Amino acid sequence: MSSPASSISTSTSPLLTYILANEPPFKSRARLPSLYSSFHLLRATNPDGYTANAIAWETALQHAVQAGVVPDQKDMLSLQTGEELLGALELEGEGGLGRPAGVGGVVDEAIAAERMIPREEFLAVKRNFYEGRGWARVSKRFLGWGLRQLGLGGGGNTPLPTGYFVMIGLVEEAGRKVLGDLKPRDTQIDRVWPMDRFKHEAARLLGQDSGLTDSDVRILLVHLSRDKSQVAYDDQVVKFRGSGEGDPSISTQDITIASLKSLIADLNAQIETLASKVGVSAEKARLAVSQKNRISALAQLRSRRMFENLLEKRTQALLQVEGVYVKIEEAADQVAIVQVMKESTTVLRGLNTKIGGPETVDEVIEGLRDEMTKVDDVSTVISQAGQESSGLDESAIDDELDMLEKEQHAEVEEQESQRVGQKLDSINTPVLPEPQRSKDSEKAKDSNGQTLSNTSMSLEPAETTTVDKNTSAVGRMSINEPGSATDKETQEKHVAHENADAIPT
Predict the structure, then answer these.
(1) Which of 42, 319, 377, 430 could form a disulfide with 50 if both were Cys (CB 3.0 to 4.6 A apart)?
(2) Within 143-248, where are the H helices?
């Protein structure tokens, strides 16, 4: 035996077909019995399950209103409840679940939570919806919901309230779309809309190709005007609020501007229609000529000429009206500019009053200069007092500095002379040939003490002679080119020869 959930067959209702195909909770056949049951009992035993079912039904109804599948209604911002709605939601067939038993409670709770408002009350109340919310308490018809919440209203299923209810979520979404796309941000004249054009553009934004119902237009305008303070409207004009302005209001100029816009739109539509008729008449005339139908061709040519004359007149009228509209727009811009200039003049006048004029500025600047001069004088006195209080002899300090510099200079000269002397010693060292060194060493061995004494006796004049000759040799070396190898070898031989002559025998 098959289970009831598996053998459900849906009715031909477009509403139920849409919900079962598009709402995720209703796509699960296993969950349908719970959704169609009297799930208000779950409020105490399973609060999460109750909340999930209530949200599923409320969301499904809201989407169905947007999709336009609710029976016998074309409104997209309000829901009509009653027996017809329950009949459209009934699941029929073998194992069918029948009508949903919990929808009445869902609608009742949405009314108490102010997510759904009776349409008459929504349109009649003057106060802002978001200030001191308490719509459900206005109507005594829904007092029973509060009693049932307290357990004083009896048990069983809640009957479905009958009537038209504004769905606040849909209204708020529509308002955001209209303000985001239609509210102009340019000139003042752009903020004035003819009512017909507003209806057409709002329907386009909300995806209603067939247009909005009068009820939807009223609900939307009441929300934008009363609850959002963004528009002012009457039967002919819708005026958006400008940036930095207070609550908008409609003037005679706004009515004239709206009339001009409507006239321009009508003329454009007529011109487009006439241009199409001219083309059709010309095509029919060509067809009649091809069929040798002279009478029909002449008739179509006359029609084309008539449409062309009318098209020319409508075009001239449109140019004139657009010229007037441009002048009005220019004048409106000038009014805004002059108003800004007036406000700017008032601001500048107030600021100049606070300043006090050029004489006051001169006094302020002169006083500032005097005070700055006083600060400089005080700084000079403080610096002089610091020098006097030190008690130091500046001349003695300068002399000591000179002495230190001379000592440092002397040390540098001494180091330089030592470096030059070391260089000279390296140059004066004789490099004797090997035979000569052997011979000298033998002489030193033979003569012993006599040679040593002779050497000591003649050492001083020899050293003197050697230094003089080396000095002259260094002088000659500085004249020669340092990079020449031949000159360097000659100098070394010359120095060696002089050193050999200087050694005593």
Answers:
(1) 42
(2) 143-149, 168-181, 195-205, 214-222
